[in-house]
Amino acid sequence: MLPPVILAVVVFLLATLCVGAILLAALYPRLAAASALDRRLALISTPAGPAALKNGVPEESRRKRSVEQTLREAEEKLAARAKRSTKPSLAVRLRQAELGWSKRTYFLVCIAAGLAVTLLILAMTGFGTAPAVGFGLAGGLLLPHLYVGFRRNRRFKNFAKEFPNAVDVIVRGVKAGLPLVDCLKIIATEAQEPVKGEFRILVQDQTLGMPLDEAVQRLPERMPLAEASFFAIVIAIQSRTGGSLSEALGNLSKVLRERKKMQAKVKAMSAEAKASGGIIGSLPVIVCTLVYLTSPAYIGILFETFTGNVVLVCSALWMLIGILVMRKMINFEM
Known about the structure:
The protein is mostly helical. The chain has helices spanning 4-45, 59-86, 90-96, 103-124, 129-175, 180-190, 195-207, 212-217, 219-222, 226-241, 245-269, 271-294, 296-299, 301-304, 306-330, and strands at 53-54, 57-58. A hairpin with a 2-residue loop joins strand 1 (53-54) and strand 2 (57-58).
């Protein structure tokens, strides 16, 4: 037999548990309904309402992961595009230079340039046929390439100069309530070239059924510039995660204009160094020409003797190395 005190404690505990179980069984439906009501009130009280959770994941976290994924994909595309843009094909370079030449036309221009340089060397100098043909081959290969590169770089600069204005037009149109496609159509008809032509192609791609974000992704492929890549990334992020497009494009316009100001500052700060490099690089040629005009016999040793030829070649190589070093020092990537 248990002592009376212990027996009384055990009876009291059992009675308490029985009473608690009876009360829980009686009040459980009301408690469950109250907890469900509390969950509904918690969902309604959140800023995003019931849409704040999707599959148990907060909307803000889901948007953040979507943005990170979009940025990773954009970075991979930019890396692949950078590899292609370092050595673009001839057809791509001609299209980017806005030249309506085919490959056959380009090769015909190379042949014409080579013949012109050969005839010019034969007519204006006393060189023989072999040196003239060598200069002709060099001119035929180099001059059309330089011309296409000049046209291509000039078109890129014009696009970068006009593009912030086009972004401002999109921002104002979106704030005024116009759809993004209508804003793009306005730029395709009212902007200046080459922005006008590139956005016309973009609108045509979208009209033919291509999704807008994919059509915009093709813009940096035609214009391999940082400005076009920024614009494509902003449109891709907005199409996947939503948000205020006008605010995002407004920030992009501000970044582009600040970037342009920084480029102007760098150009102004490096102008003196570029002028000094140009003067230093041209001095040997100018001095050699003046000495040849005033005292041809004095400098003729460099051209008539083997030792003089070796000195000329070594001097030219050292001058070339110096010019390349100075060019590397005064050119800044933005």
